[in-house]
Amino acid sequence: MLEQGSRLVDFLSMDSETDSLELASKALCATARLCHERGWVPATSGNFSVREGGRVLVTASGLDKGALTADGLLEVDLEGRGAAGAAKPSAEVGLHLAIYRKRPEARAILHVHSVWSTLISGRFAATGYVTLEGYEIEKALSGVTTHKHEERVQILPNSQDYGVLAGQMTELLVRSPRLHAVLLSRHGVYTWGSSVAEAQRHLEALEFLFEVEWRRLTGGQP
Ligand SMILES: [Zn+2]
Q1: What is the CATH number of the domain that holds 138?
Q2: Is the pTM of this model over 0.85?
Q3: Measured between alpha carbons, how far is residue 18 from residues 59, 106, 203 in Å?
Q4: pLDDT tens, N- to C-terminus, the chain (222 residues)
Q5: 12 C-alpha vs ligand 1 centroid, how far in Å?
Q6: Number of domains within the chain
Q7: I want to staple 73 with a disulfide (CB 3.0 to 4.6 A). Which of 44, 57, 164, 177 is the partner?
Q8: Ligand 1: centre distance to CA 45 (Å)
Q9: Positions of E strands within the chain
Q10: Residues facing residue 182 across a β-bridge
Q11: How far apart are alpha carbons 68 and 52 in whole angstroms?
């Protein structure tokens, strides 16, 4: 009886996992379309994912994010293994998996190639980070309660070797447990959250901050 009961529990938890993954994937597609409207994922760039337990749904390679639906998401496990014969996930899936492995609370990851993240990551690439400090909107980042917070967004050099990048991302996440985002130089930004809504809030706040900081620096503002 006990075995049957625990099988039933397994089955029910798998079922609720599937339900919440389905809901999260709909929310993720809506967020991807919004990112496209804002010009943050031009020319099929960027990628998006959600995770529930050990299951990850990630965007397939080369899709127009302005028309993304759940059909454009592929399932992989935390080791990147997909179903046999399935379409190819985005080449950057290894970076998503590195984040999920080191941030167990993360349920959604957004990666965009926006103008401001591309510009500011290039400008501060040699320093290795960009500091955002003294802005009210920093309170949109989880756990931040004051504009006096110093958010140091780390920057990795860009590479076409995603295995190397995933290793560097892992090291960064271990070294800096309070990060909300990571930039790739002249490429874009990765951010995540405990839900799609939280990840979107982080991305909107960061985009605002990158633009304000860039305009402040280049406009000679205090
Ligand atoms: Zn990218």
Answers
A1: 3.40.225.10
A2: yes
A3: 17, 17, 26
A4: 445 555 555 555 667 778 889 999 999 999 999 999 999 999 999 999 999 999 999 998 889 999 999 999 999 999 888 866 666 677 789 999 999 999 999 999 999 999 999 999 999 999 999 999 999 999 999 999 999 999 999 999 999 999 999 999 999 999 999 999 999 999 999 999 999 999 999 999 999 999 999 999 998 777
A5: 37
A6: 1
A7: 57
A8: 6
A9: 47-52, 55-59, 73-77, 108-112, 129-133, 150-156, 181-184, 188-193
A10: 154, 190
A11: 20
The token duo for 147 is 């504009």
The CA 111 to ligand 1 mean position distance, Å, reads: 6
Contact call for residues 51 and 107 (beta carbons, < 8 A): yes
Residue in the block written with tokens 């994010």: 65
- Which range marks the domain in which residue 38 is found? 2-219
Instruction: Please identify which residue in the block is written with the tokens 């931040």.
Output: 144
**Please, which residues have CB within 8 angstroms of residue 173's CB and are 6 or more apart in sequence?**
98, 99, 102, 103, 179, 182
Instruction: Give 47 Cα–ligand 1 centroid separation in angstroms.
Output: 7
31, burial (CB in 10 Å: exposed 0-12, middle 13-18, buried 19+)? buried
